[in-house]
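Q: I'm teaching a short session on how sequence maps to structure, and I want students to see two examples side by side rather than one. Could you give me a first protein with its sequence written out and its structure tokens following it? Keep the formatting plain so it prints cleanly on a handout.
A: Of course. Example one:
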Amino acid sequence: MRHDTLPELDELNRLIEMGGSHVTPQSVGSVQVGARRYELMAVTLGASAPELPAVAFIGGVHGLERIGTQVVLTYLASLVQRLKWDSLLHHELTRLRLVFMPLVNPGGLWLGTRANPRGVDLMRNAPVVARESVPFLVGGQRLSAALPWYRGPAGAPMEPEGTALCQLISTELLPRPFSLVVDCHSGFGTEDRIWFPFAHTREPIQHLAEVHALRRIFDQTQAHHPYVFEPQSLQYLTHGDLWDHLYLQARHRHPNQVFVPLTLEMGSWMWVKKNPRQLFSRHGIFNPLITHRQARVLRRHLGMLDFMARAASSHERWMPTGDERDLHHRQALARWYPEHPRPRRGKRPAP
């Protein structure tokens, strides 16, 4: 689906203008698509002090999944409107940094493709090689850019869109004591899933206890929510996952900090089930095409995104320590990694 302009980019520029002095736009790179050049735009709100937590809301890594970009823009629009009257939001932003990058792959949005204009799938392009076997094609391939899930040439640098995203996260989030990401995608199954790393191995991440504690407070405060929390490795493994790459970078460069990247996988099969004609549209497989259904999807995720901001702001109140962290780690292994060896009591998992 092509437009003379990118409506999502127009909406982002409108929100930047509406936000005035409360928002800070920055260009973190640019990409060329034919005769067009698109800036890779990020927007920040709130406190900049490095000792405070941060949350990043990401969309448009896959250009075909426009709904991910639209969900992030809808949440940003809600914040911009609330800044006019919401004193609690202003107070929250004195101790929290919010980072938005709704259009990571504007060239893919323009072309209506999952990959970027060079045919590279950004979520298969990071320098991470799976430790175990991956599914054919889906796990990332180097056969041809004409096939989906292309990783890019071996030994080549990361694509500029992925490089810009990694630089933004490395600068704005990783040095902080606590940071969290929600990256919005669509196209997997009939349920909305919230995935956490790893995608390149079935081994658990080192902050498994923190993820389990986050899921626990989410369950306790968001009654009857539709989300399934799980590691991506429960579904399939891939090469080149951007969030695996950034998580590993965080562990190497900032071992004492907590960085939790999450991926929202909206269950697009729900939309197809209600409107089977969408199967005849490549765009329809990944996005709700009926107006009222799209509006419902955009509303559906606002509460979850707002919860993540509040959880980051208040992380010191719920993050487990000591024996409580040990308990969360064991419970997480039982829930998500039943085949993984359990740690002995008294032997604490590494933070």
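Q: Perfect. Now a second example for contrast.
A: Example two:
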Amino acid sequence: MKIVTRDEIAGCPAWVASFADLRKDHRYYEILEDTLRERVEYRYFAIIDRAGCLHAVQPFFLLDQDVLEGLGAEWQPLLARIRRFVPGFLRMRTLMVGCFAGEGHLAGSSTVPSGKIAEILCSEIVTLARSCRAQLIVLKEFPARYRPVLDCFVRRGFARAPSMPMTALNIEHDDFDAYMQNALPRSARWQLRKKFKATDGEAIALTVTDDARDAVDEIYPLYLQVFDRSKFRFEKLTADYLRRLGSDMKDKVRFFIWRRGGKVIAFSLCMVEGDSLFWEYVGLDYGVALDLHLYYYTIRDMMNWAIANGYRWLRSTGLSYEPKFRMRHDLDPLDLYVRLRSPLPNAIFRLLLPWIVPARYDKTLRKFANYREVW
């Protein structure tokens, strides 16, 4: 395994085939590298044989990470006092394996399966992290189904802890009204119908497209409104990111855009994979969003569209768990595998990690029936 840049793998069949069965294939990683570059360095692990033939490519990136970012609110005043005197306290250069904007996946090919990739990666990654001057190593947000093959990392000193999970909702119903009747209790149905009355008489038009380049100047400010109100802030998208998705990934991207009187008041960026519609990002005009209960209005429209187009699942990225709990989503766990490069500090860090991840402090998560699966 060796570290390469994108220029070194451009056009390589192994890279072009990477993650081809997933919604975020090699094109998505290239879009990220071109459009989300602030404080991030993108690199790739190339798995090669003795003849120098490249068999698989595993993306990773480098950034400075605040290790204590996920601590509960009660710890923040103490942390702020410490950093008043030691500004860089527990901020580390970090090597993260996976996707900068989304869950991580193991690479693989017809010649090197993902399980073998995991073994090669865990045997060499500490040495390679040293060459990148990274103090912390993270496998970022890998779905729980990878736990058996990634157990080799735990045996080599990594600690596994939950990231903020995705959610999944089965939508095998005739339409949204049938979903409410079949899946929700009477009180929840009453609450939703009450919210939907706010849009009675409103002329709100929905457009679904695979290319929103003409509307980016209208939808991007709505994304920023949601981003600025978020308690947890992860990657910050750019307008170019939205444009590139529409130009390069039409087969896997769907933009839902709602207009009222010709003005865009909401949008959702979704991606498709198999029998699932993935709800990735949302934008809302908060000048009207709360009064019109646009969050629920947009969900109803997306579900009706997904059902009509044969999708069986609505899957969503993390956060905003309270409405998803009320609508009977299940948690879809994501894992972090983390270790410090130096063995002695890592022994202590392994004990601390489960106590500094945000999932421990989100009270809504504990309400979900499958919360234990997160751990």
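Q: What should students look for in example two?
A: Point them to this: The CA atoms of residues 28 and 245 lie 8 Å apart. Also worth mentioning: The chain has a mean pLDDT of 92.
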